[in-house]
């Protein structure tokens, strides 16, 4: 949103003082104008974010599809899209770049200053009208590949990301501005020297290796250059230093980088010397005054200045002291008023970890009333004697420091605990009906139901390890899955890798120490097949009774991943109005999310994907991270065919009519035929 202030700015945007008002008034008006413009820009979701002419209804659908997996994105009103400006909008997630490339009129793209993740596929650059692209200040990574010529592109800024290389730079023949600074690019992009039109080039802060100036575009055509903090070799002459400045070559090379004799780039530029002092030139009587008289005059003025400063400081100090005394007095009064309340709160604190009442779940209160001796039953370790008191101790009194973040489960709070024998478990409080057991059911009925639930054992099902019944409070023990859930791997970890470094200093992905990811196609296919097997097993019947177990809430947050990235279905056993056919639909939507990498699937988005798959264009919505992982090798066509076939599985499972949907057992067979799984894979 542009805001103009005619009293201060002329048509060119220059500052003008049209009227002879006092200087402080101009400053106040200027501050008001700046603050107003900042506020207006920060809250703007105006059509300027998506600028275009009339028509182009299809462009709005393309934009919506491209940002379907991006959180905090709100589609502005737009027609035929020529400019898409969304800087600093707190956007997170992955953009479907392949879909964005279908905007035939898109000329300007600005997504800078967000937290976008993933990679930019080479096919994105086929957009025919692209002229300016700015994706700086995000968390994009991988190799930046240009596989199709983009001669119209004039400006490209990818600084401040996690790119590891640039391939196909020679295809950007029309480029005039290129900024790849502050990435992880270790080699000068091949073909960079052929970009003869580049006038601004920033390669700084990459630890980049290459020859200077041989690997760069002709220096004669450059107006700006920065190769600082790299590992160049070669020769830098004095002319280059004079043209681009000393700052362009700070730590720019290793011992093989030689500066010619007439170059001063080896040493930092000298600090500017202070301006010379000039004799008094004001004219008048002072010109004829004696030196002693001038000295006395200066001393008198200096003394008056010191006195003035001292008086001002004294007044300010007294004012601050009075404010401090007032604050202390108010604080003392508040403390006295609240002291009685604090004493009463201390009496009401439970002894389970000293938590306030609202932080202690009902099960801890039940234990405090005498249920602490309630036994914990572990199916695989019947000789281990544990009680509710042991669970309370292992979870810090069911306190918040042990509570796990809620990720879409339908039961009560969950807590992580480490039991004797280094047994890592999740203790989940049963809230509502579970396995057909309600709150008022007697302990014997509940124990029988939990034992039946524990008989559901399959490699792709999260097993129930045990339970504890303390009066009306019931707890279930499950295996703790350190890798987390599928949603986290698809949408929260950069490029699906938990081991990527975080430039902000937070090591939020160091949980996993291996280099595995779910960006490769075999892993994603194995996850889809594993989920299908687990769901088919549930649909076979409750503990062999022939009565199907309907999940009713199959979403990525309920798919946990083991150490081998094998999926396990959790949060089953709840009563649900959903039928097995409803589970099949949910599985189809989950497959679409798994293959496209886009989050937030509802009926509208499923219908959108089904239309694309029906039109034989499924490859356009495949997750670009998976396509880039294929690397364009000889197996690329096979991988692409398999991904499209899996999308068709999602299409079949999401049929509008339930009777037209396949059974999960049939889905397992189709997925196995699409890609032959290793012999060691689990089977139903």
Automatic annotation (TrEMBL):
* Coiled coil location: none
Q: Which UniProt keywords apply?
A: Leucine-rich repeat, Membrane, Repeat, Signal, Transmembrane, Transmembrane helix
Please provide, alphabetically and separated by semicolons, the GO molecular function terms listed in this UniProt record.
Answer: ATP binding; protein kinase activity
Q: What is its main location?
A: membrane
Location of the protein in the cell: Membrane
> Where do the segments described as Disordered lie?
259-300
Task: Give the transmembrane region(s).
Answer: 304-333
Question: Protein kinase domain location, by residue?
Answer: 400-676
Q: Bias regions of kind Pro residues — which residues?
A: 267-277
Leader sequence range is: 1-40
- What InterPro entries is this protein classified in? Kinase-like_dom_sf (IPR011009), Leu-rich_rpt (IPR001611), Leu-rich_rpt_typical-subtyp (IPR003591), LRR_dom_sf (IPR032675), PRK1-6/SRF4-like (IPR046959), Prot_kinase_dom (IPR000719), Ser-Thr/Tyr_kinase_cat_dom (IPR001245)
Q: Which domain of life is it from?
A: Eukaryota
Pfam families in alphabetical order: LRR_8, PK_Tyr_Ser-Thr
Q: Which GO terms describe its cellular component?
A: membrane
| PANTHER family hit by this protein | (WILD MALAYSIAN BANANA) HYPOTHETICAL PROTEIN, LEUCINE-RICH REPEAT RECEPTOR-LIKE PROTEIN KINASE PXC1
Q: How is this protein named in the record?
A: Protein kinase domain-containing protein
Species of provenance: Oryza rufipogon (Brownbeard rice)
């Amino acid at each position: 949103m542009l805001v103009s202030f005619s009293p201060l700015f002329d048509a060119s945007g220059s500052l003008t003082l049209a009227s002879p008002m006092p200087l402080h008034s101009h400053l106040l008006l200027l501050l008001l104008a700046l603050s107003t413009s900042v506020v207006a820009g920060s809250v703007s979701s105006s059509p300027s974010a998506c600028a275009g002419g009339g028509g182009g209804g299809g462009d709005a659908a393309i934009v919506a599809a491209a940002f379907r997996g991006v959180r905090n994105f709100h589609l502005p009103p737009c027609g035929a899209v020529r400019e898409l400006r969304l800087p600093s909008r707190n956007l997170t997630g992955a953009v479907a770049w392949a879909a964005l490339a279908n905007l035939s009129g898109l000329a300007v793209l600005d997504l800078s200053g967000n937290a976008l993740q993933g990679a930019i596929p080479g096919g994105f650059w086929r957009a025919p009208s692209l002229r300016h692209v700015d994706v700086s200040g995000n968390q994009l990574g991988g190799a930046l590949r240009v596989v199709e010529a983009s001669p119209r592109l004039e400006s490209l800024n990818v600084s401040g990301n996690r790119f590891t290389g640039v391939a196909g730079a020679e295809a950007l023949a029309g480029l005039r501005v290129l900024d790849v600074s502050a990435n992880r690019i270790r080699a000068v992009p091949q073909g960079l020297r052929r970009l003869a039109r580049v006038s601004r080039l920033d390669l700084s802060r990459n630890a980049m290796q290459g020859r200077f100036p041989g690997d760069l575009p002709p220096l004669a055509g450059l107006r700006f250059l920065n190769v600082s903090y790299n590992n160049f070799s070669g020769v830098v002459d004095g002319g280059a230093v004079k043209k681009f400045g000393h700052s362009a070559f700070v730590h720019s090379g290793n011992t093989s980088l030689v500066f010619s004799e007439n170059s001063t780039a080896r040493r930092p530029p000298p600090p500017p010397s202070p301006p010379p002092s000039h004799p008094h030139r004001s004219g008048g009587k002072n010109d004829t005054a004696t030196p002693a008289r001038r000295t006395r005059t200066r001393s008198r003025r200096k003394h008056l200045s010191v006195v003035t400063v001292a008086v001002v400081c004294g007044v300010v100090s007294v004012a601050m002291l009075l404010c401090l005394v007032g604050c202390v007095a108010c604080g003392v009064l508040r403390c006295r008023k609240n002291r009685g309340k604090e004493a009463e709160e201390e009496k009401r604190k439970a002894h389970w970890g000293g938590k306030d009442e609202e932080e202690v779940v009902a099960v801890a209160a039940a234990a405090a009333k005498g249920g602490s001796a309630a036994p914990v039953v572990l199916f695989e370790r019947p000789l281990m004697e544990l009680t509710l008191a042991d669970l309370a101790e292992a979870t810090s009194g069911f306190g918040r420091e042990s509570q796990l973040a809620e990720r879409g489960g339908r039961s009560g709070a969950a807590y992580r605990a480490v039991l004797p024998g280094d047994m890592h478990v999740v203790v989940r409080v049963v809230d509502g009906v579970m396995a057909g057991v309600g709150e008022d059911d007697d302990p014997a009925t509940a124990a029988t139901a939990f034992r039946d639930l524990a008989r559901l054992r399959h490699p792709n099902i999260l097993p129930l390890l045990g339970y504890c019944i303390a009066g009306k409070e019931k707890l279930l023990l499950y295996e703790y899955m350190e890798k987390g859930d599928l949603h986290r791997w698809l949408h929260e970890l950069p490029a699906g890798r938990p081991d990527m470094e975080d430039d902000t200093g937070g090591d939020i992905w160091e949980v996993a120490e291996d280099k595995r990811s779910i960006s490769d196609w075999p892993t994603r296919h194995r996850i889809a097949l594993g989920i299908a097997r687990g769901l088919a097993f549930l649909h076979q019947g409750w503990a062999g009774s022939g009565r199907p177990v309907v999940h009713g809430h199959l979403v990525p947050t309920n798919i946990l991943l083991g150490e081998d990235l094998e999926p396990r279905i959790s949060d089953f056993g709840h009563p649900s109005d959903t039928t097995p056919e409803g589970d099949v639909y949910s599985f189809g939507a989950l497959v679409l999310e798994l293959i496209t990498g886009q989050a937030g699937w509802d009926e509208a988005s499923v219908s959108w994907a089904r239309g694309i798959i029906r039109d034989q264009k499924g490859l356009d919505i495949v997750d670009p991270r998976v396509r880039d992982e294929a690397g364009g090798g000889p197996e690329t066509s096979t991988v692409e065919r398999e991904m499209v076939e899996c999308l068709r599985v999602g299409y079949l499972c999401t049929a509008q009519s339930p009777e037209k949907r396949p059974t999960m057992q049939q889905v397992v067979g189709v997925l196995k035929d699409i890609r032959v799984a290793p012999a060691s894979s689990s089977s139903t």
